[in-house]
Amino acid sequence: MEQSELREWEAKCVQEEVPRCTAACPLHVDVRSFCSLMGQGRWDKAWTVLAKTLPLPGVLARLCHGPCKNDCIRQGLGGSIAMDSLEEFCAENARAVDPPRPLPARGKVVAVVGAGLTGLCAAWELARRGFAVRLYGEPGKVLALSLPEGVLAAEIKNLARLGVSFHDVSIDQVLLDALLAEADAVFVDSDSLPSELSSWGEADSLTLGTLRPGLFASPCAEDSAIFQAATGRRAANSIVRFTQGVSMVAGRELEGPYQTRLYTNVEDVESVPALIVQASYSDEEIRAEAKRCLQCECMECVKNCEYLKHYKYYPKVYARQAYNNDAIVMGTRQANTMVNSCMLCGLCDTLCPEEFSMADFCLTIRRGMVEKNKMPPAAHEFALRDMAFANGKKCALVRHAPGMVSSEYLFFPGCQLTASNPGAVERAYQDLRDRLGSVGLMLSCCGAPAEWSGRKALMDESMALIREQWQELGSPQIIVSCPTCLTTLRAGIPEAEIISHWTILRALGLPAGARVEAATLAINDPCSARHDPLLQGDVRALLQDLSIEVVEPRLTGKHTECCGYGGLLSDANPDLAKAVAVRRGAAVEEDFVTYCAMCRDMLVKNGKRAMHFYDLIFPSESDPAGRPSPGFSARRENRAHLKEGLLQDLWAEEDTSRVERFSQVQVFFTEEAERIMEERRILKSDMQKVLLQVEESGKAFVHSETGHLLASYRPTLVTYWVEFERLAEGYLVHNTWSHRMRIRGGQA
Fold this sequence. Notes:
The chain has 748 residues and is α/β, with parallel strands linked by helices. Helices cover 43% and strands 11% of the residues. One of its GO terms (cellular component) is plasma membrane.
């Protein structure tokens, strides 16, 4: 990824944009921090926030009329935050702070002519930035009338501490001409001067520059104190640019009030009455008013995504971390797990006001890692092995319907549904053949694991094979059960006519054996159905036909949550995948019904009662929501047995796939061993391969304490260890583990 691409991605995230109040403030006070501290009663800390931003803070905190209130997002929810009252209270009750330490001297002299509020603020800003400032005129003559005694004098003293020199002289044209000749720049506070001294013409609204080079002037008739101060700051900014010889106009869009891009969702915010205006306020009243501040931020995606919440930042930061991770030439890539933990579900995209898609970003980074050979093998190896198994001779099957030489339709149930509930797949295929006739069958993986892992070449290869097999069957209409397969096949074979099984069922009606009984179930839309309202509608209509009352979770339909399997999260980060599944399960009290096999199995595996829609229309159990989620080994066996059974029962064929020798090894497992195998993704077949090696070599260690035998075998990139004992009928496995280290000196 090029850095320019990163910039484009970062620009989409608005979390770091300022809130509306700060953007509306001419001086951009950090209102959020100020209100937070005021709400805690920390007046001194709150004052440091004001003093950091405001010139002459003691003056402006008392004179500011609060233009930010017009843009406060609380305005329609009880009234805007009384920022002017909060500032004045803070000024009266907080401990005064010293003026900021000026930057090192620049060796430049600036004359400020006119000592009204604009001139005083310009002098403050210039002195703070290292200029030698000479102020001409009587300081704040009018200001003193509207301020408590001593306030203006204290700020004039602070100006002197910043290095400003004061010159109370008569101001005329002769003085102006002399100052222009002596100083590096001159700023004129027009409100403090007679109109006859405005011979330089109207000042530029952006730069405040005049017809005379080096002479800057404020516009006349500005009566707002905070806007006068902003004009003084604008003049200082222009003088800095002028003395540096750089552009006077570039990059000044954010000076003064502007429209922020920050989005804040107030849908669930309660209305709270604003502070009643009065002469004085108690500490409690001020704290209560400050606490009304919503502390505006976006975080829409983070609030609704366990993955984004887990890493404790937001997409702009994640994008930078992932980019830096991808750009590393040598060293450890710390963000690999973060990049591979995105579920690629697209929820963030639908919630983000700027459509920042972590799915698109992370998939781009994953592809780059694969291309550079920097993708950790362990991240997705198990899922890719499972995909290869589903597409291998033991499981894959492509046939016309029994007795048919052509197919009008092709049923594609997907590899996860055949792994989870092969009996329902068999009954679904029978129903389609009974009602549609020439329906072929393709048992295969759609290639989603290859796509999610960033392996584009493998994905293209997988899709090319599916296309070739589909064409050999005569390019029939494809009926798809799995929403992920539906999305993947539509993208991979755009020329094919592809329809969901649920749309077919809407047209045909419910199968004869469907379980029609009144019940209340919560609907779980798979994330792959997020942008398919037709599919969502078909499922809900079918549930209604079954007399099911449907409960919608808070996040549903377009905004549905992932179950924790998407993007291969459960392989890259199992603990986070569990947290995602638990969160989704906690979204409703009712049992879930879903139309994705992995959603169903992930939810059940993590303690939530859930059923697949096939459990309702092709029933086989009295309590489908309580059906256990099959383990990894069982999933493989289910696929293989489904193919074997279909070949024998429908096509009267024998499965010609070679029987592996290791599969003949009889092995049993303790409950603890089964738990460990699921947790560590170790298959029964992996154990059988180790034990076959023991049978052939006769080599094994003996555990000195338990008497159990220990052996290892490295069939591919992983070394598997087994702690076992021999039984008359086979082997009993007590423990198992694996690693990627190669043990030299042979196998034990």
